[in-house]
Amino acid sequence: MPSATSGIPALPTPTVRLDGAQLPPEVQRDLIAIRIEQDLGAIGMLTLELRNWDAATQRHTWSDSSLLAVGTGIEVWLGGPGAPSAFLGEVTGIEPVWAPDRSPTVTVRAYDYLHRLTRGSVTRTFVDASDSDIASRLAREAGLRARVTATGTRHRHVLQSNQTDLEFLRSRARRHGFEVFVRDRELHFREPALGAPVTSVLRVGDEIEHFVAWLSAAGRAGRETVRAWDPRAKEAVVGSGESQVLPAMGGAGVGQRQTDTIFGRATVTTADVPVRTRREAEELALGRLRTSALTYVEAEAEGGDALAPVRAGTTVGVQGAGTRFSGTYYVAQVVHTFAYDNRFRSSCQLRRTSA
After folding, report:
1. What integer pLDDT is reported at residue 1 of this predicted model?
2. CB neighbours of 186 closer than 8 A, spacing ≥ 6?
3. How confident is the model at residue 192 (pLDDT cuts 50, 70, 90)?
4. What pLDDT does residue 74 have?
5. Which pLDDT score is estimated for 300?
6. pLDDT at residue 79 in the model
7. How many Å apart are CA 280 and CA 151, to the nearest integer?
8. Burial of 116 (0-12, 13-18, 19+ CB in 10 A)
9. Distance CA 213, CA 231 (A)
10. N or C: which end of the chain has fewer CB within 10 A?
11. Distance, CA of 79 to CA of 87 (rounded, Å)
């Protein structure tokens, strides 16, 4: 297994910065909890829950404060010096609560910079552009850097029809089995990084306190074919993808290939998506296979401090789950919760192409 970290020490108090400045002590004292949600299928989110009442002055403290105004940049680190930030974004919501059984509180909600691609719907046409070109342009328009995997086909016209930029970009990503997310003000448009080095080794019964996994072979096929019609040439456009070109994550090979061996060879045919060339049809077929492959094995892992370094879009090693379910997993979602009574909990959604 690639190099990894384990034996993680107890988690120090998270570090929070507002617009690049250290969180003032008076805000730090009123923090109740921090929750960070990273999900490759959603916008990353942070919530800060704070006490919102100063008994000495009889005033609300933070719901009216300019320190936590909408648009304030916010960054959070979980871990000691040198640890990568766990969240970078900007405040988008303020939610005060008054209840009869407790002092007033306020929840400050922030989204990562992917939320900028949801502001307004657009109708426009991209001319002579690949999907990776489109992703780079949308990143620039949102004030983000772009890190994109090049896509081969250049399209004469691509219509964005009354969609937000994020809806539109995700529809283009689905054609390739790609994911769309933002990390450190950088928009990623890429295939899942299944071959990346493992970032943490997590043992069931140690770093992982609760582990549930499920393998599903039902309805899977090892070949995808895309069929369309070229009205100019008056001929069929056909492209296919095979599961053996996909990366296996251990075991006896990619799940679709295993099911073909056990149950017999099968093909899924798509005929309702317009494509112009065989190359484009093959890209679409491979993208659909890639998306299906990554749900062959799914798992949920829960634990405490030791899961703090886990980030969505990375790989982790799982040990102690038997031969079939131990190995490398891709992190699709992670939720970190730190309560200021010194309780830290994490939960992760994990995926794997093989077993």
Report:
1. 34
2. 144, 145, 146, 147
3. very high
4. 97
5. 98
6. 74
7. 10
8. buried
9. 47
10. N
11. 12
11: which 2 tokens? Answer: 């988690």
pLDDT of residue 10: 55
Q: Does residue 79 contact residue 36 with C-beta atoms inside 8 Å?
A: no
Which secondary structure element, helix H or strand E, spans residue 87, and what is its range? strand 85-99
What the block records as the tokens of 280 is 């484009």
Say if residues 307 and 202 touch (Cβ distance below 8 Å). Answer: yes
Strands 267-270 and 223-230: parallel
Q: Which residues of 151-185 are buried (b: 16+ CB within 10 A; e: fewer)?
A: bebebeebebeebebbebbbebbebbbbbbbbbee
Side chain identity at 22, as an amino acid letter?
Answer: Q
Positive or negative, the CA dihedral 151, 153, 158, 162 is negative
d(CA 151, CA 133): 8
Res 23: pLDDT: 92
Q: φ, ψ for residue 168 (rounded to 5)?
A: -65, -45
Instruction: Identify the burial level of 235 via C-beta atoms within 10 angstroms of its C-beta, where 0-12 means exposed, 13-18 middle and 19 or more buried.
Output: exposed
Residue 325 is encoded by which pair of tokens?
């379910």
- Separation between Cα atoms, residue 61 and residue 81, nearest integer Å: 30
Helix (H, G, I), strand (E, B), or coil: what is residue 190?
Answer: strand
Read off the pLDDT of residues 56-105 as tens digits, 9 standing for 90 and up.
888 999 999 999 999 999 999 987 667 789 999 999 999 999 999 889 99
For 108-159, write each residue's pLDDT tens digit: 999 999 999 999 999 999 999 999 999 999 999 999 999 999 998 999 999 9
